[in-house]
Amino acid sequence: MTKLERYIKKKGGVLSGDLARYIVRNQGVSNDAARKRIQRLTSPIHKLTGLFSDKKAFIYHADNYQNSEYFDDLVGAFKSDGKRCYSIINAIKYHHGLIPVDELPNYSISPVRLISGHMKFSSLIEKLKQHNLIRETREGKYGLNLFVAEQAAPNFRHIKGIEISKKLILQHFETWSKNLGLVSFKKGKNNHIVGGFQFAFTAPTYIDGLIGYTSKQKKPGFLVADILIGNVTDEDSISFFIRKLAAIKASNPTLRLFPVLLVDGISVKALNQLKSNGVLVASIKELYGKDYSDLIKNLINTVTNAGAILKSEPEKYLSLMSKLTKLIDGKTNNLRGDLFELAVGFYFSKYSQSINIGKRVPVLDSIRSREIDVLAINENEICVIECKGYNYPVDIDYIEVYLSEKIKEIRGWVSSRYPEKKQRFEIWSTGGFTKEALKVLKETKLKVRKFDFDYLSQKEIKDRANRLNSDKFKEILRDYFLKEIV
């Protein structure tokens, strides 16, 4: 093994530019000679190319391939010379280890559509997957390699609480911008593309100074917004937004933008950097008030600790839902679905010894896991509830997968963990079920023997709610979850 090979092996990995400087310094050769020596390196020395600026390569020894030192140095190389890769990794870290597939492009400095001189977002993602830096989960989220993540397993409930809050904030931001006359009515879109890049919210605007002209016809500008909440928002966190705007201006200089970044807190340096780049920094507290900001924090905490709160402090849930009900509008169907499991959990908390919301259980003989919406445990029975809080019926395709796969896999865990307890499975749907789905559900209920099974549409859900001595809960159920159901 040569001295150079030993040096490379001692490190997890090194950029070709840094390695060239080491050769020049220690071997007394020219820069050109150092580069040629690097080009001649062969196995067990390998090179990772195509992801760094100025055609640089990441040089590593085969013995270090994808160990912890390799990934540490690779991420460091991305931070200094591979900004497009680093923006992806940093975005997933900021979101506590998991981010929905459709949201990650918002935090990327790579365009979703082809722009000359830029690698497309989809191509970048494939390369990051190929090099085992990121992974895609069955639930439609991107996560990081464990070495890259540098953290314990993700807190799925906390992540979900932040995701729900982001949806709510963006819905109210659209209403705010529409009411001020900043954007065109009913033209706002989430996770939409402007100038080739994706943003969390976009809408055309005809405000004077943002309008352009093409062949004497008005060409609108665009309000473009992203959102960062639930973590420390510093210069590193906001760099993607500034770089994304700069790339749009360079590739499409006639496109006029009104950029906004929504935050729940931000460092002074990051704030000043955004302002110097013409970005409106919209603090949640300053935009909507302290009560709203506190409500968002309460929402995240309630979703994160749902089981404990529903069992020991159910009034906190009722208070939260009462406040949220006053804020809802016609665009909150997805939000209803996310929160319906809490309503079902509230019901079962009155009859159960313990309650768990969103519990993830391992699938036997597999590395996969399954999420249980509501898990209610009594002395003699364990009940597993699937919650569908939408204003449309559940179809046959979903029901077939639920019955043949999900129940089967969860039963494996229940049987091994609670072999002495009777098992009951239920599916609650505020929007009911299609005729084909109902037929299969009825047949299943009649024929299953190893566990109890039931399915609930709007009428049955109302009947269950009437069993509780809680007018407030029935009011929330009616106004928030069942009001728009036909």
What descriptors fit this protein?
486 residues, alpha+beta, Arc Repressor Mutant, subunit A, Trna Endonuclease, Chain: A, domain 1, five-stranded mixed sheet, 19 helices
Folded structure, characterized:
This protein has helices at residues 3-10, 16-27, 31-39, 68-81, 83-94, 121-130, 146-149, 156-179, 235-251, 268-276, 284-288, 290-304, 306-312, 314-325, 333-349, 396-417, 435-447, 458-467, 471-482; strands at 14-15, 45-48, 58-61, 98-100, 134-136, 141-144, 189-194, 197-205, 212-214, 217-219, 221-228, 257-263, 280-283, 354-362, 369-377, 381-388, 422-429, 452-456. By secondary structure, it is an alpha+beta fold. A five-stranded mixed β-sheet has the order 7-8-11-12-13, with helices on both faces. A five-stranded mixed β-sheet has the order 14-15-16-17-18, sandwiched between helices.
What is the C-level CATH assignment of the largest domain?
A: Alpha Beta
- Portion in strands: 15-25%
- Overall CATH architecture of the largest domain: 3-Layer(aba) Sandwich
Structural class comes to alpha+beta
Oligomer type: single chain
Helicity range: 40-55%
**What is the count of distinct domains?**
3
Outline type: globular
By CATH, the topology of the largest domain is Trna Endonuclease, Chain: A, domain 1
| CA distance, first residue to last residue | 75 Å
Number of strands: 18
Describe the strand arrangement of the main beta sheet, using strand numbers. 7-8-11-12-13
Largest sheet: 5 strands, mixed
What does the average pLDDT come to?
92
Q: Helical region count?
A: 19
Radius of gyration: 27 Å
